[in-house]
Amino acid sequence: MAQEADGRPVRGVLELFTSQGCSSCPPADEILSRYAASGDVLALSYHVDYWDYIGWKDALASRQNTDRQKAYGKTFGHRTVYTPQLVVNGSSEVEGAKSGDVAAAIDAEDLRSEPGAGEITLSQDGPTVRISALAPAARPSADRETVLVLVTYRRETQTQVSRGENEGRTLVNHHSVRDWRVVGKVTGKSMEIDMPVSMLADPDGAPTGCAVFLQEMTAKGVPGPIRAAAMLDLAP
Q1: Largest Cα span, the chain
Q2: Do 6 and 34 form a contact (C-beta atoms < 8 A)?
Q3: Could you report how far apart the first and last alpha carbons of the chain are, in Å?
Q4: How does pLDDT run across 4-55, given as a tens digit for each residue?
Q5: What is the pTM of this model?
Q6: What is the structure's pLDDT at 136?
Q7: 3-state DSSP assignment of residue 186
Q8: 3-class SS of residue 161
Q9: Which residue, 112, 107, 105, 79, is CA-closest to 91?
């Protein structure tokens, strides 16, 4: 029987930049996990690779994730990057381990109530994932465009850490990003995309989720505010 599922819109997007080699990150990972379980927030964990040299190579990390954090560094005017950094709706940042600051930031703006912010629908029909996106009513600014970002993530991963700052701990990470990509520019016309589930699912068969969001971005790839988002647990 073909599997069918509809994605759900979310009230906010949390992007945590973290590392299994960083002793300051597990508390932030736990906070993100709670939001991932809530169902109404897109909580994404981007494992970065620049702490691998201190004793533990994070198997979930990628240079691509580090590149996204560096791009946000340009957004916020930082010369360096750090963990655990948490970006909220592409427009503000907090230290990921400070639960009160995270809650305040995510409660300050509900993407679902923003008028004219654009629309996204996401669904699975058997072997196909369908994405529909419509840009915000007004163009962001002269130097920005609205783009569609597609993200895939492992829903849960457990890792026994044998070296480094977290030696001896079993770390549980949720919504660890496997891949993210800019699919294309979204204009006033609706964008419709069909993708095979096989292109998005984890090759090892681990439970996988996918998400799409509309984000403002400059021609040089500097990210800005996220205007709408949806997420979907992929059925096998």
Answers
A1: 53
A2: no
A3: 11
A4: 567 888 999 999 999 999 999 999 999 999 999 999 999 999 999 999 999 9
A5: 0.95
A6: 82
A7: coil
A8: coil
A9: 105
Cα 48 to Cα 9, 58, 105, 232, 233: the distances in Å are 27, 8, 23, 24, 24
Alpha-carbon separation of residue 31 from 36, 122, 173, 188 (angstroms): 9, 26, 11, 37
Q: Which two tokens stand for residue 131?
A: 């994405």
Residue 46 pairs in a beta bridge with 17
Neighbouring residues of 130: CB distance < 8 A, sequence distance ≥ 6: 121, 122, 123, 124, 192, 193, 194
d(CA 151, CA 21): 23
The pLDDT, as a whole number, for residue 2 is: 41
- DSSP string of 106-138? HHT--GGG-TT--EEEEEEETTEEEEEEE--SS
Q: How far apart are CA 128 and CA 194, in angstroms?
A: 6
Q: Which string of b and e fits 42-79 if b means at least 16 CB within 10 Å?
A: bbbbbbbbbbbeeebebebbbeebbebbeebbebeeee
> Residue 135 in contact with residue 187, Cβ under 8 Å?
yes
Confidence of residue 1 (pLDDT cuts 50, 70, 90): very low
